[in-house]
Specification:
336 residues, alpha/beta, 8-stranded mixed sheet, two-stranded antiparallel sheet, 10 helices, 21% strand
Length: 336
C-alpha cells in the first residue's frame, strides 16, 4: 500500500467536495492566524474585518469537514493568538468556545510551549505558547497512547515542549515537524480495516524487555537468564504483581486470588530472583500484533488516512509519510 501524499489544489472550505465522505481517520492542520500574514490570495482565510468574523469563517470551515470523518476520528487544530490595538484578542478561546457550541467534543486543549519565538514589539511578556485543540465527533475517539509513548513522554500530558523552526520554504509560517508527528502518533491508526474502515486494536504484552530507566534492570535480566525460569514463571509474576507480598497481600484488591499453579510458579520465581522479582512487574509493554477487525473478521488492513486542509509547505504530509500513513493535503497554492 503506497503512502505517497496526495496533493489537491483547492479551498479548505470545499474539502467535503474533494474527498470521499467518511474516509478520514484524522485531520491535523494549522489555519492562517487572524491578520498575521497575507498570503496574497483572494480566497484566503485570516483577513476578515474583525475577530468575530474570522472565528465564524474558521468554525464554519472546520465544521464542514465533519462529513469526511470516520466515527473514531479527531481534528487537531494548531491556532495562535493575535494582538489588536495593543491587546491580546483571545482567538484560541473564542474558537474553542464556538466549536463546543457547534456540538464538537473537546478531547484535549494542548499547550505548545516554545523556548523561543518572534520578538514581541508590544509592552508585554513575549508569547511563548500556542494552542493545539483536539476535537472529535465522539467522546471517545481513537487514541494510541502506546505508539505515542514509544517516541514522546506521556508524563508531559497536555503540555508539548516543541522548538519553533525557521522557515526554509516559500511558506511564511510552517509549524515544526514534531507537532504533526505527535498528533499522528496519538490520533491516527496504524492499521484500519479495508472493508469497514475501523481502526484495528493493538495486542500489547509485557515480556522480558525491562525498563532501562531502572538501575536494577540489567542485573535482574542477568539473574533471569541464569535461573532456568520459563515463560510460565513470567506469566505468573505478571499475574501476581509486585504488591502480592507482605501487608499489601492483605489489603490490595485481588491479591492472593490466583490459581494454585500460578502461586506455585510465582513462589519458585521469587525464590530464584529474590529482590529482583519485582523488576519483572515493571517490564515494558510491547506490541505483539493487531487484532482482526471485529466486524469483518480476517479482512485486509491498510494505513490510516491523514488530511491537512491547510497544507502549506506539507509538514503534516511529510510526517504522515515518515510514519507510514496515507495523507491528503489541500491548499489554495500547493507548495509540496
Amino acid at each position: 500500500m503506497t503512502t505517497t501524499p496526495v496533493v489537491l489544489p483547492g479551498n479548505a472550505r470545499d474539502a467535503a467536495k474533494l474527498i470521499a465522505l467518511g474516509s478520514v481517520d484524522v485531520i491535523v492542520t494549522s489555519p492562517p492566524y487572524w491578520q498575521k500574514r497575507d498570503y496574497g490570495h483572494p480566497e484566503q482565510l485570516g483577513w476578515e474585518r474583525d475577530p468575530q468574523e474570522f472565528i465564524k469563517e474558521l468554525v464554519t470551515t472546520v465544521h464542514g469537514w465533519r462529513p469526511l470523518l470516520k466515527p473514531h476520528a479527531s481534528v487537531f487544530v494548531n491556532l495562535g493568538d493575535s494582538i489588536r490595538d495593543g491587546e491580546v484578542v483571545g482567538i484560541p478561546r473564542m474558537f474553542e468556545t464556538e466549536m463546543i457550541r457547534r456540538g464538537w467534543h473537546l478531547i484535549s486543549h494542548i499547550v505548545w510551549a516554545k523556548r523561543s519565538g518572534i520578538p514581541n514589539p508590544h509592552a508585554r511578556l513575549a508569547q511563548r505558547h500556542e494552542a493545539i485543540f483536539q476535537f472529535a465527533r465522539s467522546q471517545r475517539p481513537f487514541m494510541d497512547t502506546f505508539a505515542y509513548a514509544q517516541e514522546f513522554d506521556l508524563s508531559e500530558g497536555n503540555v508539548w515542549h516543541i522548538k519553533s523552526v525557521r522557515s526554509r520554504t516559500a511558506h511564511l509560517a510552517p509549524f515544526p515537524a514534531e507537532l504533526p508527528r505527535r498528533a499522528l502518533r496519538l490520533g491516527c491508526p496504524e492499521c484500519v480495516c479495508v472493508s469497514c474502515g475501523a481502526a484495528l486494536s493493538r495486542v500489547i504484552e509485557r515480556g522480558l524487555e525491562l525498563d532501562p530507566q531502572r538501575k536494577q534492570s540489567k542485573r535482574a535480566r542477568e539473574i533471569w537468564e541464569a535461573s532456568g525460569l520459563t515463560e510460565g514463571h513470567l506469566r505468573a509474576i505478571r499475574a501476581t504483581g509486585s504488591g502480592d507480598v507482605g501487608k499489601t497481600l492483605q489489603y490490595q484488591n485481588g491479591s492472593g486470588r490466583n490459581s494454585a499453579e500460578v502461586q506455585r510458579l510465582a513462589a519458585e520465581a521469587k525464590e530464584k530472583l529474590n529482590g529482583y522479582f519485582r523488576e519483572f512487574t515493571f517490564a515494558l509493554p510491547q506490541h505483539v500484533r493487531f487484532d482482526p477487525c471485529p466486524q469483518c473478521g480476517g479482512a485486509e488492513s491498510r494505513p490510516g488516512l491523514v488530511l491537512d486542509p491547510f497544507m502549506g509547505s506539507g509538514t503534516t504530509m511529510k510526517a504522515a509519510e515518515s510514519l507510514g500513513r496515507r495523507s491528503i493535503g489541500i491548499d489554495l497554492r500547493p507548495m509540496f
